[in-house]
C-alpha cells in the first residue's frame, strides 16, 4: 500500500489533524492513482492512435469496424467494478464521519453573518475561535442565525452546513496540537470570505485553564465586558472601532457625543439612546451612505446588562 | 417592409431587411439569431470572468479594500452574473439552440422543424428572459450566486425576484425547443432514415430534448415559489416562517443536475460527428453511444442529492445518491472508450474542429475522473464548495461543452456561411485557449485540495501563488478567443467560397449547397444506409 502514500505526497492536502483525515487521504490517494492510470490510458491511447493513424493521403482506406461486443462489455464492466469499490470504501469512511460518538465534548456553534459564535457548556462564549482538547471526541452542534453557513476545517476533512431553524452536527477527534483554519464554505453574502476562524487544539490542562479564564470574565468591568460582547456578537465584522473608515457599516470610532447625518438628511445625536436604538432597531434610522436592511436586529438576544455593557464600550471608543 | 420579392438562392439572401429576420420561421435563420445573441452574452460573461480573476490575482490587504472590484458586494454580484449568464444564457441554450436549430432538420433531411412558429417564439422567450435578466443589472443587482439558495435569496435586498422571473421565461424557451425537437425527430425524418440511421448528434439532441421537457418545469415552479416566498412570505423556504431552506436545494438540483447533462450530452453528440468525419471511419459502437445518451439522461434524474452531501440530509440519503451517481459514470466512460476506438485504423486529419474534439477528450477525461472523486462521499465532504468544485465544473462545462461548441462552429462554419475560415489562425486560437484553459483551471484543483472555499473574493496568503497562475491563464484564454474572433470575422469577410462538402462527411447536411437554400434540399433526400458509411 506504499503507493497511496506516494500519491498523497502529491495531493497537496493540508496537514492531517485527525485519524479520519488519514483515511480520507488514503482513499483520495487511491483515486488519484486510478484516475491517473485511467487518464494515461484514455488520453495516451488517443494520442497514440491519432498519431499512428494520421491521414497520409487524401484517399486513405479505413477499416470498417462497427463494434465489438466482448470489448464493449469489458470496458463497461471494469469501470463499474472500480466505481462500486470506490463507493463502498467511501461509504465505510463516511459512516464513521456521521456516527456521532457518545460522551463527546459538546460545543455549540452558531453561524451568523459573518462570524462563528462559539458557546461552551459552562456558558463561556467566544467568536471565531474554537478551542478543543487533544485526543478527545468533540461534537459540534451547529445552527445558523440568519442564512446558511458551512463549518469547514480543511485539516480535519470535515464540513457541515449550518442551517437556520435546525441543528446539524459533526464530530472529530483531533490528534495534533496546533492551530487550524476554520472557513465558512456556504456562500452567505458580503463578507463570506471574511468569515474565517481558528480551531485550536490544546492539551487537556490548557483546555481546562482556557475555560476557567472564560469564567472569570464574568466579573469584568462594564466597558471590558462590552468589548468582549462586541466581538462575540460579531459587531466587529461590520464596524471599525479604531479608525474612522467605513466597513460594511459606519465606524464607531470617536462618534460619541457628535451628530450623525441620516439618509433623509436629518441629524441625530450619537448618545446612549441612539446606540441602544441602533442595536435593537437598526433600520429605524440609516446613516447617510449606507444601505438599509443590512444590520440584523439584536432584539431578544441581549439582556439589559449586556446592552449597558455595549453602550459603555462604544461610548469609550476614543 | 414586407417580403422583398427578389428571392436569393440561399437562406441568408433569401429575403432582405432586418424585419425579414425578426419574423422568420426558417430554422437556419433562427439558429443564426441565437448564435449572435448567445455570443453576445458569452462576451459579457467572459468579461466578468476576467474581472473576477483580476480581483483574485492577490489577496486583499484589508476587508473592503478592493483591488479591481470596489468591495465584496461588487465581487459577489459579478460572480453571480458571470455564473447565471454563463449557465442560463450561454451553455444551456448554446448547442441545442444554435447548432441544434440549424442542423437538426438538415441532418434528418427535413425542410424545417415541426413547429417553425413555436421555434421563433422560443427565441423571443429567450430574448425576453435575457433582457429582463440583464435589466436587473441596472436595478439593485443580484448577489445570490446563480444557485439562488434560500434563505439568503429571500433576505438579500436585491433584485432576486426579477432575476428568477427571467430564468423562468428562459426556461420556457428551453421547453419549447425541446418539444419542437422531439416532434421533429419523430415526424420529419427523410424517407429511409430509421431511428438507427440517425446521426449521433441527433440522438444526443433527442436525449437532451427529453431532459429539457421533463426537468425545466421543475426549475420553473421552484423559481416561482421563490418569488412567491419573497413577495408574500408564505413560509415554504424561510425557516423564520417555518419553511425548509433545504427543500429549495432539493428542488433546485432536481432541475440543475439534469441541466448539467442538458449542457454536456449535445456536446458529446458533436464530438461523435467530428471524430468520425475527421478519421474517415465509421464510429465505433454507434448503438452504445446512442443509447448511452438516453441512459445518462434517465439516470441523471436520480442523482441530484450529490450536491447536498453536507447539507444535513441523512446518512442513508447520502449513500443512495453516491451509489446512483457512480452509475452515471459508466455510460460516460463508454463514450470515451468508443471515441478512442474509432481512431483505431482510421485516417485522422488534424483540422481545427478535430483539434477541438481532441481537446474535448483531454479535458473531459480530467473533468470526468474528478467527478468520480466528488461522487465519493468522504472526499466530497472535503471538496464540497471549494475551488476543487470550481475547477471540476469548469473542466466539464468549459472544457467539455464549450470546446465542443467551438469545434462544432468550425466544422459547420462552411455550411452555415458558405465561406472557409483560415485554418492557421483557427489553430493558433485553439492552442491559446487549450493551454490557457489548463493554466487557469488546473491550479484550482490544487487550491481546492488545500481547502480554499469558493465564492471568496479574498483569501489567506497561502493560496496566493496558485491564484496568480490561474489569473495569468485567463489572459491566455482571452488571447485565444480574440484570435478566434478574428478568424471568424476574417472568414466571413474574405473567406474562400466553401464547396458543398469540404470535409468529405457522410451526413445529410453536406448533401446540399453551402449555404443551404431556403428550404434546405432541392430534391428530397432518400436514406439507404447508416450515417457513417466510410468504406
Ligand atoms: C475564461 C474563462 C473563465 C474564467 C476565468 C472563469 C472564472 C470563474 C471564477 C473566478 C468564478 C468564481 C468562483 C467562485 O468564487 O466560486 C467562476 C464561477 C463560475 N463560472 Fe466561470 N470562468 C470562466 C468561464 C466560464 C464559462 C464559459 C462558464 C460556462 C459554463 C462558467 C461558469 C461558471 C459558473 C456556473 C460559476 C459559478 C458561479 C457561482 O459560484 O455562483 N465560467 N468562474
Ligand atoms: Cu458564512
Automatic annotation (TrEMBL), chain A:
InterPro entries: CcO_II, CcO_II-like_C, Copper_CuA, Cupredoxin, Cyt_c-like_dom, Cyt_c-like_dom_sf, Cyt_C_IC, Cyt_c_oxidase_su2. It is an enzyme of class 7 (translocase). Its EC number is 7.1.1.9. Residues 4-101 form the Cytochrome oxidase subunit II transmembrane region profile domain. The keyword Transmembrane applies. The chain crosses the membrane at residues 27-51, 72-94. PROSITE patterns: COX2, COX2_CUA, COX2_TM, CYTC. One of its GO terms (cellular component) is plasma membrane. It is found in: Cell membrane; Membrane. Residues 102-213 form the Cytochrome oxidase subunit II copper A binding domain. Keywords: Copper, Electron transport, Heme, Iron, Membrane, Metal-binding, Respiratory chain, Translocase, Transmembrane, Transmembrane helix, Transport. Residues 221-318 form the Cytochrome c domain. GO terms for molecular function: copper ion binding; cytochrome-c oxidase activity; heme binding; iron ion binding; oxidoreductase activity. Its main location: membrane. Binds a copper A center. It is a multi-pass membrane protein. One of its GO terms (biological process) is ATP synthesis coupled electron transport. It catalyses: 4 Fe(II)-[cytochrome c] + O2 + 8 H(+)(in) = 4 Fe(III)-[cytochrome c] + 2 H2O + 4 H(+)(out). Its cofactor is Cu cation. Belongs to the cytochrome c oxidase subunit 2 family. PANTHER family: CYTOCHROME C OXIDASE SUBUNIT 2, CYTOCHROME C OXIDASE, SUBUNIT II. Subunits I and II form the functional core of the enzyme complex. Electrons originating in cytochrome c are transferred via heme a and Cu(A) to the binuclear center formed by heme a3 and Cu(B). This is Cytochrome c oxidase subunit 2. The gene is ctaC.
TrEMBL record, chain B:
GO terms for cellular component: plasma membrane. Keywords: Cell membrane, Copper, Electron transport, Heme, Iron, Membrane, Metal-binding, Respiratory chain, Translocase, Transmembrane, Transmembrane helix, Transport. Its main location: membrane. SUPFAM superfamilies: Cytochrome c oxidase subunit I-like (SSF81442). Pathway: Energy metabolism; oxidative phosphorylation. The chain crosses the membrane at residues 32-52, 81-106, 118-139, 159-183, 203-227, 247-271, 283-304, 316-334, 355-379, 391-413, 425-452, 472-493. It is found in: Cell membrane; Membrane. GO terms for molecular function: cytochrome-c oxidase activity; heme binding; metal ion binding. Its EC number is 7.1.1.9. GO terms for biological process: electron transport coupled proton transport; oxidative phosphorylation; respiratory electron transport chain. It holds the Pfam family COX1. The keyword Acyltransferase does not apply. Gene3D superfamilies: Cytochrome c oxidase-like, subunit I domain. It is an enzyme of class 7 (translocase). This is Cytochrome c oxidase subunit 1. The lineage of its organism: Bacteria, Pseudomonadati, Bdellovibrionota, Bdellovibrionia, Bdellovibrionales.
Amino acid at each position: 500500500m506504499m503507493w497511496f502514500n506516494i500519491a498523497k505526497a502529491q495531493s497537496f492536502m493540508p496537514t492531517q489533524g485527525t485519524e479520519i483525515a488519514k483515511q480520507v487521504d488514503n482513499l483520495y490517494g487511491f483515486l488519484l492513482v486510478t484516475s491517473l492510470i485511467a487518464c494515461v490510458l484514455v488520453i495516451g491511447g488517443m494520442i497514440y492512435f491519432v498519431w499512428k493513424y494520421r491521414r497520409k493521403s487524401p484517399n486513405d482506406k479505413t477499416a470498417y469496424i462497427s463494434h465489438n461486443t466482448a470489448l464493449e462489455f469489458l470496458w463497461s464492466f471494469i469501470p463499474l467494478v472500480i466505481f462500486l469499490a470506490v463507493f463502498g470504501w467511501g461509504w465505510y469512511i463516511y459512516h464513521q464521519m456521521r456516527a456521532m460518538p457518545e460522551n463527546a465534548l459538546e460545543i455549540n456553534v452558531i453561524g451568523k453573518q459573518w462570524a462563528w459564535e462559539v458557546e461552551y457548556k459552562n456558558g463561556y462564549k467566544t467568536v471565531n475561535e474554537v478551542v478543543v482538547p487533544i485526543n478527545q471526541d468533540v461534537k459540534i452542534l451547529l445552527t445558523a442565525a440568519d442564512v446558511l453557513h458551512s463549518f469547514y476545517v480543511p485539516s480535519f476533512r470535515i464540513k457541515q452546513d449550518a442551517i437556520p431553524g435546525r441543528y446539524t452536527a459533526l464530530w472529530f477527534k483531533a490528534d495534533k496540537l496546533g492551530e487550524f483554519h476554520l472557513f465558512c464554505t456556504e456562500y452567505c453574502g458580503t463578507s463570506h470570505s471574511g468569515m474565517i476562524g481558528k480551531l485550536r487544539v490544546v492539551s487537556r490542562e490548557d483546555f481546562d485553564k482556557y475555560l476557567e479564564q472564560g469564567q472569570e470574565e464574568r466579573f469584568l468591568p462594564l466597558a471590558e465586558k462590552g468589548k468582549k460582547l462586541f466581538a462575540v456578537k460579531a459587531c466587529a465584522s461590520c464596524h471599525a472601532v479604531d479608525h474612522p473608515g467605513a466597513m460594511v457599516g459606519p465606524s464607531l470610532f470617536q462618534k460619541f457625543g457628535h451628530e450623525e447625518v441620516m439618509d433623509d438628511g436629518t441629524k441625530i445625536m450619537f448618545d446612549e439612546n441612539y446606540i441602544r436604538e441602533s442595536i435593537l432597531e437598526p433600520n429605524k434610522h440609516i446613516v447617510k451612505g449606507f444601505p438599509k436592511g443590512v444590520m440584523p436586529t439584536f432584539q431578544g438576544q441581549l439582556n439589559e446588562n449586556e446592552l449597558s455593557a455595549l453602550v459603555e464600550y462604544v461610548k469609550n471608543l476614543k | 417592409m414586407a417580403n422583398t420579392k427578389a428571392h436569393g438562392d440561399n437562406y441568408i439572401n433569401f429575403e432582405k431587411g432586418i424585419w425579414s429576420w425578426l419574423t422568420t420561421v426558417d430554422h437556419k435563420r433562427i439558429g443564426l439569431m441565437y448564435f449572435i445573441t448567445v455570443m453576445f452574452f458569452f462576451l459579457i460573461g467572459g468579461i466578468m470572468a476576467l474581472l473576477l480573476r483580476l480581483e483574485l490575482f492577490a489577496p486583499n490587504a484589508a476587508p473592503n479594500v478592493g483591488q479591481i472590484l470596489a468591495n465584496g458586494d461588487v465581487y459577489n454580484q459579478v460572480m453571480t452574473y458571470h455564473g447565471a449568464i454563463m449557465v442560463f444564457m450561454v451553455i444551456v441554450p448554446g448547442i441545442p439552440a444554435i447548432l441544434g436549430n440549424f442542423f437538426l432538420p438538415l441532418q434528418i433531411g427535413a425542410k424545417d422543424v415541426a413547429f417553425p412558429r413555436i421555434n421563433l417564439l422560443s427565441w423571443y422567450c429567450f430574448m425576453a428572459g435575457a433582457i429582463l435578466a440583464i435589466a436587473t443589472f441596472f436595478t439593485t443587482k443580484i448577489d445570490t450566486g446563480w444557485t439562488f439558495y434560500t434563505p439568503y435569496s429571500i433576505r438579500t435586498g436585491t433584485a432576486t425576484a426579477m432575476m428568477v422571473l427571467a430564468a423562468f421565461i428562459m426556461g420556457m424557451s428551453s421547453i419549447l425547443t425541446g418539444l419542437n425537437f422531439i416532434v421533429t425527430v419523430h415526424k420529419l425524418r427523410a424517407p429511409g432514415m430509421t431511428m438507427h440511421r440517425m446521426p449521433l448528434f441527433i440522438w444526443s439532441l433527442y436525449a437532451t430534448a427529453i431532459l429539457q421537457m421533463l426537468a425545466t418545469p421543475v426549475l420553473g415552479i421552484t423559481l416561482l415559489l421563490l418569488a412567491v416566498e419573497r413577495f408574500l412570505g408564505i413560509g415554504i423556504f424561510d425557516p423564520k416562517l417555518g419553511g425548509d431552506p433545504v427543500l429549495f436545494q432539493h428542488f433546485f438540483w432536481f432541475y440543475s443536475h439534469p441541466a448539467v447533462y442538458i449542457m454536456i450530452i449535445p456536446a458529446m453528440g458533436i464530438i461523435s460527428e467530428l471524430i468520425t468525419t475527421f478519421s474517415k471511419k465509421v464510429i465505433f459502437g454507434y448503438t452504445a453511444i446512442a443509447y448511452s445518451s438516453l441512459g445518462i439522461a434517465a439516470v441523471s434524474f436520480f442523482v441530484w442529492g450529490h450536491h447536498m452531501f453536507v447539507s444535513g440530509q441523512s446518512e442513508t440519503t447520502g449513500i443512495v445518491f453516491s451509489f446512483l451517481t457512480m452509475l452515471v459514470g459508466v455510460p460516460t466512460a463508454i463514450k470515451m472508450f468508443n471515441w478512442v476506438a474509432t481512431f483505431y485504423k482510421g485516417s485522422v486529419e488534424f483540422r481545427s474542429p478535430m483539434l477541438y474534439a481532441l481537446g474535448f477528450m483531454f479535458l473531459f477525461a480530467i473533468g470526468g475522473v474528478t467527478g468520480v472523486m466528488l461522487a465519493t462521499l468522504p472526499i466530497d465532504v472535503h471538496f464540497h464548495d471549494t475551488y476543487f468544485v470550481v475547477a471540476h465544473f469548469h473542466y466539464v462545462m468549459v472544457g467539455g461543452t464549450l470546446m465542443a461548441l467551438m469545434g462544432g462552429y468550425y466544422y459547420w462554419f462552411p455550411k452555415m456561411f458558405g465561406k472557409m475560415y483560415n485554418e492557421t489562425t483557427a489553430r493558433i486560437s485553439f492552442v491559446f485557449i487549450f493551454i490557457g484553459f489548463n493554466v487557469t483551471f488546473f491550479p484550482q484543483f490544487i487550491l481546492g485540495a488545500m481547502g480554499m472555499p469558493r465564492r471568496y473574493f479574498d483569501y489567506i496568503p497561502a493560496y496566493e501563488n496558485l491564484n496568480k497562475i490561474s489569473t495569468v491563464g485567463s489572459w491566455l484564454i482571452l488571447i485565444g478567443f480574440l484570435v478566434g474572433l478574428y478568424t471568424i470575422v476574417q472568414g466571413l469577410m474574405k473567406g474562400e467560397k466553401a464547396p458543398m462538402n469540404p470535409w468529405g462527411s457522410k451526413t445529410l447536411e453536406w448533401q446540399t449547397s453551402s449555404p443551404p437554400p431556403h428550404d434546405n434540399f432541392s430534391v428530397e433526400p432518400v436514406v439507404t444506409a447508416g450515417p457513417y458509411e466510410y468504406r
